[in-house]
Amino acid sequence: MMKTKILHIINDLSQNGGAQKFLVDLVLEHNPEYEIKILVLCAENDYLEQLSARGIQCFNWQTLSLSEKWSLLRWPDLVHGHLYPSIYLALLAIGKKRIQTEHCSYNRRRDYPLFKFIEYVLYWGHHYTVSISEKVQEELVKFMPRYQHKYRVVHNGVDLNRFPMTAKQAHDLSEKATINIGMVGRLHEHKDHETLIHAIAKLPECYHLHLAGDGDRKASLQRLAQSLNVSPRVHFHGVVSDIPLFLSDMDIYVQSSHVEGFGLAAVEAMAAGLPVLSSDVPGLDEVTGSSEYLFEVGDSNLLAQKVAELCEDAALYNSASHYSVNRAKLYTIDKFREGYYGIYQQLCTDK
C-alpha cells in the first residue's frame, strides 16, 4: 500500500515556541502508513537530530533552488501549515489537500482591512482550519464566519509519561527557605511577565520567580525587576530543553498571558503536580477549567494574593495540586494525535 505523504510547513523549529513543539509532538510518533517531511522557512531547527532519528526529513526553504521548492510542494498528498507566513506558502501547493492550525485566539492581521481580503483567500484555500481550543475557534468564527463549515477543534496534548502525574504536598513547603514560582514561555508581547514580576514584588522575600524562555523582551523585563528591587528574586533561565526537570524544582506555576490559544505549558505544569494559576483569557480559561485558579490580566494584587493563599494554606495547596493532576488527564498526546491523523485520513481517502 502506498504511504500517505504529509508535508508540514512552519517558520522555524526553535525550542522557544509553542507551535514548534506542537508540530514535533505531532510527528514524532506516527503510523507507518504516513511519510512525513517538514519544510522550515529559516535555518533555526533545534529538533533536527530528534526528527532525523525518526526518519523525518527537514528542508530549509532558504537553501532550496526554485526547482527543488516546486518539487517539494508537488510531493505531498496533504500540506499542513503552521503560523504566519507559512500558512500562506501552503496555498502554493495547488491541487493538494490543505489544512492549517489556528494556534492563537488573536492575530494583528485581523485589525487591518487589507488583510481581511487576504485572510478570506487563506480560509477559502484550506480544506480545514483546525483550532487548538474551543475559544480559539469561537474567535475565528467571529472574524470569518463564512467558512465555519471548514472549522474543527483538536485540543493540544501532553505526553503525560514524561511527568510524575502525582500531586505535590504542602508540607514540603514548610521545610523550604525559598518558594519557587515558575513560568514557561517566550519573552514576547503575547505573554504578561510584567504582572508576574509586579506580583513577586508584593510577596515576601522567600518567593522567587523562575522564567524559562527567551525573547526580545528580556532586557525590558530585567529592567522592570531592577526598578522594583526584585532582581535577586527573578531568575531568567533562557530556553530550557528539559521542562519536566525545570518544573520539578518549582512549588507553584503561573501562566501569565495577554493572548494564549491553549496553554500547553500550563497543562505540563499540571502534569508535574503543581498548583497552576492562569490569566483569565480565552484558551487558558478553558484549559484551567475553574475561576478559582484564574486572575484578571494585569491584576498583580490578585495574583500575589492567590499565590500567598495557596502557599500558606496546606489544604488549599493540596486541593489545587490534586486538581491539576486530574485536569492534565483530559489533554493526552494520544487524543491530540488521533484528532489530526483522523483528519488526514478523512481528507486523503480519495487521493
Automatic annotation (TrEMBL):
<dbReference type="Pfam" id="PF00534">
    <property type="entry name" value="Glycos_transf_1"/>
</dbReference>
<feature type="domain" description="Glycosyl transferase family 1">
    <location>
        <begin position="179"/>
        <end position="323"/>
    </location>
</feature>
<protein>
    <submittedName>
        <fullName>Glycosyltransferase</fullName>
    </submittedName>
</protein>
<dbReference type="GO" id="GO:1901135">
    <property type="term" value="P:carbohydrate derivative metabolic process"/>
</dbReference>
<keyword id="KW-0808">Transferase</keyword>
<feature type="domain" description="Glycosyltransferase subfamily 4-like N-terminal">
    <location>
        <begin position="70"/>
        <end position="162"/>
    </location>
</feature>
<dbReference type="Pfam" id="PF13439">
    <property type="entry name" value="Glyco_transf_4"/>
</dbReference>
<dbReference type="GO" id="GO:0016757">
    <property type="term" value="F:glycosyltransferase activity"/>
</dbReference>
<dbReference type="InterPro" id="IPR028098">
    <property type="entry name" value="Glyco_trans_4-like_N"/>
</dbReference>
<dbReference type="InterPro" id="IPR001296">
    <property type="entry name" value="Glyco_trans_1"/>
</dbReference>
